[in-house]
User: Which sequence fits this backbone?
DNA sequence: GACCAGGCACATC
DNA sequence: GATGTGCATGGT
């Protein structure tokens, strides 16, 4: 089996086991973008509380965040942790999008993936995973999102070397799978679900893992 | 009480 | 360049 076949085999096994994940769990592009910041190193359940607070106060949009005082944002997103840092990140991102795209998601959509990615990465507080999450889940670009779980999966299945970089692992997926945003969407979501369910740091190899047949 | 969660920037060596 | 640290709430 080549790498692409192995990746598809893993994908199908995860899909059979967990079913479709229907990511991203957000209703609008702006909610997805905001959620991508809030979920940094944070359990999604805590993020939901923060998003709910923003929504109930009418601040769940780029334009409103740009207008709202940073201390108010920080207070509303408190449940998601790192609230001072994330409030600053949300303000930076929002002011960038207002200044360059008038906060208009349709204008964002007309820009090339490469240019958008480098623009997002230039914003303080947005790293590779957050930028790629926005590109894939808010803008449906065929960009594979790598995260801590992807590393665990790839290393434990000997798909990549231990000290691989983000971009190297990303290339492993994108160069061996069809260029398909729907596939990348579902695959990343399934990897996260696998990680949450089985692939904890403390149990590197879990006997009940759905991939633990001939893939470990 | 320890450990973890859908990261990132920055300091220091 | 690689290694370490602060950020912070809430669930298990």
Assistant:
């Amino acid at each position: 089996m080549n790498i692409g076949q192995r990746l598809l085999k893993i994908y199908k096994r995860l899909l059979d086991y967990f079913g479709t994940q229907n990511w991203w769990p957000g209703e609008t592009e702006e909610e997805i973008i905001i959620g991508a910041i809030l979920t940094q190193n944070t359990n999604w359940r805590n993020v939901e509380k923060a998003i709910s607070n923003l929504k109930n106060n009418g601040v769940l949009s780029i334009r409103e965040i740009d207008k709202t005082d940073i201390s108010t944002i920080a207070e509303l997103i408190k449940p998601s942790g790192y609230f001072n840092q994330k409030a600053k990140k949300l303000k930076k991102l929002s002011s960038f999008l207002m200044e360059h795209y008038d906060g208009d998601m349709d204008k964002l959509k007309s820009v090339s993936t490469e240019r958008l990615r480098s623009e997002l990465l230039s914003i303080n507080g947005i790293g590779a995973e957050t930028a790629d999450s926005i590109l894939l889940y808010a803008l449906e670009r065929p960009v594979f999102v790598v995260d801590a779980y992807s590393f665990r999966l790839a290393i434990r299945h000997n798909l990549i070397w231990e000290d691989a970089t983000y971009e190297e692992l990303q290339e492993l997926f994108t160069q061996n799978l069809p260029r398909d945003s729907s596939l990348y969407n579902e695959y990343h979501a399934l990897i996260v679900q696998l990680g949450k369910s089985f692939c904890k740091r403390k149990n590197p190899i879990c006997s009940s893992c759905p991939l633990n047949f001939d893939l470990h």
In short: The radius of gyration of chain A is 18 Å. The domain at 29-138 of chain A is CATH 1.10.340.30 (Endonuclease III; domain 1). Residues 185 and 191 of chain A are 10 Å apart (CA to CA). Chain A has two domains: 3-22+144-197, 29-138.
